[in-house]
Amino acid sequence: MVKRAITISLLFVIxxxxxxxxxxxxxxxxxxxxxxxxxxxxxxxLNKDNVETVSNNVKDAKDYWNSKEDALCxxxxxxxxSTVTDTLNRLYSYVSNNDYxxxxxxxxxxxxxxxxxxxxxxxxxxxxx
Length: 129
Prior knowledge:
Layout: H1 2-46, H2 55-73, H3 78-96, H4 100-121, H5 125-128
Helix pairs in contact: 1-2, 1-4, 2-3, 3-4
């Protein structure tokens, strides 16, 4: 009986630790993505005539998201995450082609998705259930 209680307590502590880690990691990833989106929006707006200069920064944001997406897929539906990936891919394409109108639209979508994902992936009672 005591061994069973210790085992259950230990499992509870481990699960609680993983949940806390997940909460902190997701919060950090989403905040970083929001910061990338805000910076990209500012840079694209400032470089209307030559948005190609922002392509390295878009690539950095894309690489960051791709490196974190695999870990997030373990915890969340890939469909929710693929919208960000698709938006970053389109944004990179538009910036590389010096297409300001589509690039600013995509970076605005990226900002919206990062805000939406904060609610989907953040800490709330629906996610606990």
